[in-house]
Amino acid sequence: MATLAPHEKKHKVTVVGSGNWGSAIAKIVAENTKAHPDLFEQEVQMWVFEEETTVPESSKKYDASSELSTKPQKLTKLINHFHENVKYLPNIALPHNLVANPSLQDSVKGSSILIFNLPHQFIGGLCDQMKGHILPYARGISCIKGVNVSSDGISLFSESIGAKLEIYCGALSGANIANEVAQEKFCETTIAYDPPAMDSQNPTPKGPTPKSSQLDLTKITDSTESKLTGRKKKLRPMPSEFPPVDHALMKTLFHRSYFHVRVVSDVAGVSLGGALKNIVALAAGFVSGLGWGDNAKAAIMRVGLLEMVKFGKMFFAESVHTGTFTEESAGVADLITSCSGGRNFRCARMSVEEGVGIGVVEKRELNGQMLQGTSTAREVNGFLRMRGLEREFPLLTAVQRILEGEADVKNLPDLIEGDA
Ligand SMILES: NC(=O)c1ccc[n+]([C@@H]2O[C@H](COP(=O)([O-])OP(=O)(O)OC[C@H]3O[C@@H](n4cnc5c(N)ncnc54)[C@H](O)[C@@H]3O)[C@@H](O)[C@H]2O)c1
Ligand SMILES: O=P(O)(O)OC[C@H](O)CO
Fold this sequence. Notes:
The chain is of the alpha/beta class. The chain folds into two domains: 11-265, NAD(P)-binding Rossmann-like Domain (Rossmann fold, 3-Layer(aba) Sandwich); 269-415, Orthogonal Bundle (N-(1-d-carboxylethyl)-l-norvaline Dehydrogenase, domain 2), CATH 1.10.1040.10. The chain is built from 19 helices and twelve strands. It has an eight-stranded mixed β-sheet, sandwiched between helices. A two-stranded antiparallel sheet has the order 3-4. A two-stranded antiparallel ribbon has the order 8-9. Helix 1 links the parallel strand 1 (11-16) and strand 2 (40-47). 52% of the residues are buried. Nicotinamide-adenine-dinucleotide binds next to helix 1. SN-glycerol-3-phosphate (G3P) binds at residues 145, 175-177, 278, 281, 334, 337-338, 342-344, 372.
């Protein structure tokens, strides 16, 4: 068999997850694999946590005369038939080259790029199931907003995915409310990719070159992730037959006219921004629920941003750049959008307005989608408490105390100053 010329192999891409954001990102990626057939196989696999569901009557796909609409069906069947995720991203057309697959192991088979996008509580178990079924030189991007807290301490999902699967994994996060992105309303995002030097030695890929002002190809250093886990030796280089997976390729895979990508190297800052802003958004929702207005929300956001920066400096000192929180979409912009219209904000506001637990609102309002702020608040609080550091992060601490019913939302002004 003839050997392929360098870079003549194409990347196969799998999205692990198919919720609200998982489906929106899969749409973007499938649009781009189609637009760049020189770099990517056109078909994108999307792993779906299989469930039986019905087409909602409000859906444009609902047809009262069809059993597909009137009887419960497998979600993968509905997605592949209608090219729409009728449950988690209704009324958004998905590209026909996006294939829903209920088998995790089959969906990741042969993929050189794996995109992880699902509620953070499920990722550990899924990685265990993927072990031994992925290409050893695959590269990952985590779109998960959360942190991994265990008895060993705190780590980023890019780190824990990388460590479990022995691959390199970067992160994508930004001011990205999924429904707006899926409707192709303009937004920005931040991708953090700090690949091992062995990948960066490959020549620049073919295809469109992103603007140099948005790339930082000089900053390819040993990642803190590699230092932390000692995984560097185990990482397999991307074979030279493939286009190198670098900042330029990441931009080509994710950038759309309505989804502007900036690529940086600060994986810790990008991941932490996405995780911690969910806790701040709950606090913003609480004060909004009291009817306190925009000034109160701005105060919460100011204190929240400072605590996010402090958290990064205290626990990820080697790698975090403060600028990621203050200048990138993954930092301050995500904080603003999340405190304006995110699910955490909206559910927290309703819970205070109605005087009911946030879990009740989540179940009633989100149709199976999941809040990440409540579990992240609990996990981060457990981590701080174990170290006697709750007082250093009064807002993060106050949110957990309110969720547990130990503190009153009305006392937030004093709580966030550490006075209550
Ligand atoms: N939705 C957004 O606007 C948005 C935007 C940016 C980032 N994010 C982040 O993206 C990540 C994924 O969020 P999402 O909105 O796609 O999820 P979601 O809130 O829509 O969650 C539902 C998903 O969880 C899956 N699920 C349920 N039980 C499961 C199980 N036992 N095992 C595996 N999967 C199971 C469902 O099948 C569904 O795909 C989160 O970290 C979130 O914070 C979300
Ligand atoms: O709806 P939320 O609160 O999970 O936030 C969604 C996104 O993270 C906003 O960027």
